[in-house]
Amino acid sequence: MAKQEAKGDIQYAVLPWRIGAGGKREIMLLTSRETRRWVIPKGWPMKGKKPAQAAAQEAYEEAGLIGEIVGKRPIGTYHYSKRTKHSDVLCEVRVYLLRVEQQLEDWPEKQQRFTAWFDATKAAELVDEGALALIIASFAGISLV
User: Fold this and answer.
1) Which of 39, 54, 87, 126 is 20 to 30 Å from the Cα of 15, by its Cα?
2) Residues 6+ apart with CB under 8 A from 41
3) Does residue 87 sit within a domain?
4) 71 contacts 15 by C-beta, under 8 angstroms
5) pTM metric for this prediction
């Protein structure tokens, strides 16, 4: 994870996507280091970087993703309980879109996580946070009902 410049409980994330072989949007998920849950790249604010830039940096560090942030504003927010050594912290995560151009062969956290592409419906099913599932569904134009 990048150097922490913690500003309260706000984190920045990207929803990494591409157009798959079938012409549908695919979402990349990765596993968290400790619990191995399926998540999206996210992290704390970084000194000298705008929120979207910090989120894109996390995508590189956690999944080796290179791409372009789409839009200037987050596409949504969700909350989750971050487990720390001392307690659980409720974090608000602001999610930006990252159109993935490539995944590098090597990246800082490659040995600590798994990454995989999923169709949007499957990605929405795999994440634990309901609000994140809704962000994925809304982006992909699918219904979770």
Assistant:
1) 87
2) 13, 14, 16, 30, 55, 58, 59, 61, 62, 63, 65
3) yes
4) no
5) 0.89
